[in-house]
Design brief:
This protein is of the alpha/beta class. The protein contains five helices and ten strands, in the order ββαβααββαβαββββ. Strands 5-4-3-6-1-7-10-9 form an eight-stranded mixed β-sheet, with helices on both faces. A two-stranded antiparallel sheet has the order 2-8.
Length: 190
């Protein structure tokens, strides 16, 4: 069975973006990019909400071809271009997209069907609204929360409208030189 793994940056006070989606406060460094590469090596699918998918689609397919492309851009672009994409959207048309499944209804059934297929992990990067829907359905198996050393005071919350208590087990934590602490939790299934 494949795991659905949640990757999200958050402020110390629990926001994933500013009120208008601002993410310029997120800190990253080369060691974090190297770490993310180890996680993408364990995944063969990426899950996004429509807004994040469109943002990713506008950058990653050709990012590795730029003359100024960093090692991370080259590696992540290659990964992005080969993996299957799953997009939660009521407006996108799957027929117009390459190597992409669009889920507009029956979220739990369709995600569980994908999780039961042979393959590696499914990573959800960002996509706070899509993540909220997945969390409400109890579909997330692992969490990687990258806590940034900043207090935003307001914005889009990391967790919203959780319908029932979800027990988690801390598996590990990693501190990056930029001051970000990554917390890795597994969902405890009853």
């Amino acid at each position: 069975m494949r795991n659905l793994v949640f990757f999200m940056h958050a402020s110390l006070d629990g926001f994933v973006a500013g009120l208008n989606g601002e993410m310029n406060w997120i800190k990253v460094d080369d060691s974090m990019f190297d770490f993310v590469a180890t996680m993408t090596a364990q995944a063969d699918a990426a899950l996004y909400g429509r807004v994040t998918y469109e943002m990713m689609q506008s950058y990653w397919p050709k990012a590795g071809e730029s003359p100024n492309a960093s090692k991370h851009d080259i590696e992540h672009s290659a990964w992005y271009n080969q993996v299957s994409k799953i997009v939660l959207s009521k407006t996108l048309n799957e027929k117009e997209l390459n190597n992409t499944i669009v889920i507009s209804e029956g979220l739990a059934d369709k995600i569980n069907e994908i999780k039961n297929q042979e393959g590696k992990n499914i990573l959800i990067f960002g996509s706070p609204r899509a993540s909220h829907s997945l969390l409400q359905e109890g579909l997330v198996d692992e969490f990687w929360v990258f806590v940034n050393p900043i207090l935003l005071g307001k914005g889009i919350p990391l967790f919203k409208n959780i319908l029932e208590t979800t027990q988690l087990k801390l598996v590990e934590s990693i501190t990056f030189s930029c001051g970000v602490i990554a917390l890795h939790y597994e969902t405890i299934r009853r």
